[in-house]
């Protein structure tokens, strides 16, 4: 074993080396959609380390708007919320920003002829739309599709935000469910920016249930979804083409089990959220680098 002196607190705040600066620059160039600096984000007022609030299922009728970067994000990230919302007498509309048309390794395989990949992409779009409609049906919600491009949402933030804002002006939601702004997936981070920009048409105190999918979120609230967990599973299982390549079901259920245990709910099932107002969500998102 090699003895290693503990790192001092001051060492964390030293200036980065030339090598670190170069690596960061390369990463930013390779993945401009999600690279964010924790120093730029200033997490101190977001991660307070306070125990998350245990929330009761919503019981007042109202309109919930879920923004999903891809088909399946709505079921994985906040399917339990949608089901609880329905049981409380509310209605839910899911706004899909893309068709998930790049969500298969064959689409990204340069060894496969381009014409063959394009044909499969069109087939995948129809497949994912059908799966999404089935999942949304399980959730008791309605689906609306926006013209975003899978893997390229960061390039269409303004246009998609404008479209979403118009939809919300026509049907003002009482609450929003959207990706946690610090999610490491580029499309999820861009979706947060889209929601933040579109939220200009909403009252500043509109609640935002900021959900987790691709990476665990900093949470301040936990929703017990034990009573609707079986339905959430069925919604995720609707995405057979997605589960054939990546078992998101196992990951989602493991995360929901962990959230319950870590929040003192024991052998139950829960979803974790960063619950805030839409004005606060916008302020957080505006501080992030895309």
Question: What would you note in describing this structure?
Answer:
The chain is α/β, with parallel strands linked by helices and 290 residues long. The protein has one domain (53-286): Rossmann fold (3-Layer(aba) Sandwich), CATH 3.40.50.10320. Helices cover 42% and strands 14% of the residues. The chain contains 10 helices and 8 strands. The chain has helices at 18-30, 38-41, 73-87, 114-139, 157-170, 186-198, 229-237, 240-243, 248-262, 278-286, and strands spanning 53-55, 63-68, 91-96, 142-145, 175-179, 207-211, 221-224, 270-277. It has an 8-stranded mixed sheet, sandwiched between helices. Helix 3 (73-87) links the parallel strand 2 and strand 3 (91-96). It is globular, with a radius of gyration of 20 Å. The N and C termini lie far apart (42 Å). Mean pLDDT is 85; it is low at 1-14 and 32-41.
């Amino acid at each position: 074993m090699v003895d290693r002196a503990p790192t001092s607190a001051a060492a964390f705040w030293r200036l980065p080396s030339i090598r670190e600066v170069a690596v960061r620059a390369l990463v930013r160039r390779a993945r401009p959609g999600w690279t964010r600096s924790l120093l730029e984000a200033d997490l101190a007022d977001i991660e307070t380390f306070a125990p998350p609030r245990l929330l009761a299922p919503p019981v007042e009728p109202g309109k919930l708007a879920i923004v999903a970067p891809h088909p399946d994000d709505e079921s994985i990230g906040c399917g339990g919320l949608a089901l609880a919302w329905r049981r409380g007498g509310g209605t839910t509309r899911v706004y899909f920003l893309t068709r998930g048309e790049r969500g298969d390794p064959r689409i990204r395989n340069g060894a496969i002829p381009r014409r063959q990949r394009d044909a499969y992409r069109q087939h995948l779009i129809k497949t994912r739309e059908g799966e999404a409609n089935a999942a949304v049906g399980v959730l008791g919600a309605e689906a609306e599709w926006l013209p975003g491009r899978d893997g390229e949402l960061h390039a269409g933030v303004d246009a998609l935000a404008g479209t979403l804002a118009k939809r919300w002006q026509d049907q003002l939601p009482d609450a929003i469910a959207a990706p946690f702004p610090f999610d490491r997936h580029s499309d999820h981070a861009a979706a947060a920016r889209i929601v933040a920009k579109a939220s200009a048409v909403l009252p500043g105190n509109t609640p935002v249930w900021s959900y987790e999918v691709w990476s665990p979120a900093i949470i301040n609230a936990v929703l017990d979804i034990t009573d609707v967990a079986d339905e959430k599973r069925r919604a995720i299982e609707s995405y057979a083409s997605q589960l054939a390549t990546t078992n998101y079901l196992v990951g989602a259920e493991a995360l929901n089990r962990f959230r319950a245990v870590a929040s003192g709910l024991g052998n139950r099932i829960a979803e974790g959220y960063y619950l805030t107002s839409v004005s606060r969500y916008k302020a957080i998102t505006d501080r992030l680098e895309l």
